[in-house]
Amino acid sequence: MSAEQNLYISLSDDFLVPKNNDIGATLRNDGENNCTYLCGNSLGLMSKSSSTLVQEELHAWSTRAVTGHFAHPQDRPWTKCCDEVNTLLAELIGANEIEVACMGTLTNNLHLLMDSFYKPTATRFKILCEAHAFPSDQYAFTSQALAHGLDPATAILELSPREGEYTLREEDILETIEKEGNSIALVLFSGIQYYTGQWFPMQSITKKAQDKGCICGWDLAHAVGNVPLSLHDWGVDFAAFCTYKYVNSGPGGIAGLFIHEKWHEIEYPKFAGWWGHELSTRFEMPPKFSPIKGAQGFQQSNPSALAVGALLGSLRVFKKAGMMEPLRERSLQLTGALEKLLKRSKYYVPSSDLAQKGTKPGFTIITPEDASQRGAQLSLLFLPVGSGTMQLVYDYLSKNGVIGDEREPDVIRLAPAPLYNTLKDCEHAAEVLDKVLDHIS
Is 106 labeled as ligand-binding? Predict the structure, then answer.
């Protein structure tokens, strides 16, 4: 079987794909067929194993009640329900298990980590980030600066792409750290930029930041389960991530954090909670907090067994697939195939020709062309900018059973997730896109 033929076959049949009827694809006459789902960068599909494990947890709750914390029908007592998850998450992000904790939500974890690692002084107080970071990150940066009595306008240093460009150049990021490093307390970028899909050069940024005496952390919301990560070997100080996108844990699924083991003897959680206390004495309810060594000491409250079960189900699929190395290879092939299909369209406008673009509908791709600088996402900018073309295209795609993600005012993100998407999905999306632009034109 050729590589192209293999891309028509889903890597796993473990996922449940919505039907065209269920997502309101009113222009389709095959309502009972699966839709073309290219939105794993926003919310991953539900795996059959996740559904099974959640049902098992509901059964355990109904038959064991409180005793399920210690005696579980599937031998997953709720006091230890994160054990297997932490092991698999560590493998997924390139970490030691002691460096990982399955807990909380993304922004909550980000606040906890920033509270421990953002320690501004009179001369070193800035937070370096990308301009137009995900809004929740921007809110967190602003509130952390204010909590330290700082003016966000001077404390937050936002780095924008060069004029006429959509993504940041590595040399510009490193040059900024070199120039401003003595005033920067914390460098905190997205692993993958949510809007453009750019995968930042994490290793070189981390090294440069630390060489200049800065702490370097990462928001990995769009990177975890999407691209290979080696957080321990790269020396990343800390990271926070959600799991409901490429890791498929379900809407609002439980999140995670990473703290490099070099900090384990130095940093202790300032906001302690009982689930971060050593398990051996946790239920003795001692008055003095004795944290679990490492990242898991940052846990506060007991996690939802239902949320953990949903995450564990998907992580077991990752494990079955061989984790990120084979998935990355398939991802490169799928995203590359989608890119080629889109560039064949008569409506595609190369970025070099944007200045000459007239008023006819079209699109360009603002995600980096270099596959090593992106994950499983292509962001399409629809033209003319501000014309409403994107909204028309998005509505037509949805009614034809192609589910992507709209970003006002002009961008649609398409993400062929390697766990469940196929080349057929990419072909269908490109075909429907051409049809709608024919209609608009």
Answer: yes
